[in-house]
Amino acid sequence: MTTAPEAPATYRLIDGKQTAEDIKVEIAAEVAQRKAAGQKTPHLAAILVGHDGGSETYVRNKVLACERVGFDSTLLRYEDDITEAELLAKVEELNQDADIDGFIVQLPLPKHISSEKVIETIRPEKDVDGFHPMNIGRMVAGLPALLPATPSGIVELLRRYGLVTDGKHCVVIGRSNIVGTPVSILLAKNLEPGNCTVTLCHSRTRNLAEITRTADILVAALGRPGFVTADMVRPGAVVIDVGTTRVEDATKKAGWALKGDVNFEEVAPKASYITPVPGGVGPMTIAMLLLNTLRAAKGEVYPR
User: Fold this and answer.
1) Which of 29, 172, 238, 268 has the highest count of CB atoms within 10 angstroms of its CB?
2) Is 61 exposed, middle or buried (0-12, 13-18, 19+ CB in 10 A)?
3) SS3 301
């Protein structure tokens, strides 16, 4: 008869906010060196369509992050009645602008605009979100690429906390093209961190809790607040919560609070390491976006 492993006496928070700050310090130092050597200052542009609260906050944080590391930044704002043709024309304009090293079109977009068409119109060498099929394909093939920011941020957290991934079972809940699918690919690669045996779960997965309880590393990226409960987690697991959903909260000045996909109060006592929300994966997304912009400016993936 086997005995179930005991839960750890304490858990350790994976501090994405501090880790992101560390990365920004590193980037800022390299940018300062580039400027001192007379090299071009990296330039990140962002297109924001409409007035979605979450998008407004995220883009504002990107602009502030650019200032923090010494990048040039440009924010282009449009009302949500912009036509698809007009937006695609602006994307092409940024493609041709030699001063712009990378740019993003903030998602989600209004329903009358195809996100896929917009993403495919961005030149791969300027696609610092890492969403273009060329960058995704190169990632799958193990070639240098501008990696999707959130998945690469998750991998970087595992790296910087020295967490062993080799041979571990990683379960990812959520199969989006932005997080779930690419992080499952990255963690399965023969890399460090990597070399996981990965199970990718989704809305049609049967016996989900039975599967998640086998995970050494559990990544929750499905956008359902509090979905992952204690009975779904193996004692001692590393838990990565990607969820950032606004939930009404009358106790907060803003009237809402950010909630992750993991029921933190229940799950944390069973975990060895866990990311909080906010302050976990979220800040890493912006840090990795900055890192992609620096790589684009240096021509590391697509030489100029």
Assistant:
1) 172
2) middle
3) coil
Active site annotation includes 106: yes
Task: Output the CA torsion 140→141→143→147 (10° steps).
Answer: -10
Which is the catalytic residue, given 15, 129, 216, 241? 129
Give residue-wise pLDDT tens across range 157-173: 999 999 999 999 999 99
Q: Is 244 annotated as a binding residue?
A: yes
Q: Cβ distance 200 to 180 under 8 Å?
A: yes
Residue type, 89: A
Q: What is the pLDDT of residues 111-130, one digit of tens each?
A: 999 999 999 999 999 999 99
Task: Out of 15, 24, 62, 241, pick the active-site residue.
Answer: 62
43-49, strands of its sheet edge to edge: 72-78, 43-49, 102-105
Helix (H) or strand (E) holding 205: none
**Residue 32 Cα distances to 18, 23, 24, 103, 113, angstroms:** 21, 14, 12, 21, 39
123 known ligand binder: no
- Say whether 96 is catalytic: no
Which two structure tokens, joined as six digits, stand for 40?
Answer: 């071009």
Of the residues 106, 126, 261, 270, only one is catalytic, namely 106
Binding site annotation covers 176? Answer: yes
Return residue ranges of the chain for CATH 3.40.50.10860: 40-129
Strand (E) or helix (H) holding 256: strand 256-259
pTM: 0.93
Residue range 148-282, CATH number: 3.40.50.720
Which CATH superfamily is 40-129 part of? Leucine Dehydrogenase, chain A, domain 1 (3.40.50.10860)
Of the candidates 60, 79, 80, 76, the residue with the CA atom closest to the CA atom of residue 68: 60
Q: Is 166 a catalytic residue?
A: no
Strands (E), 68-180: 72-78, 102-105, 169-173
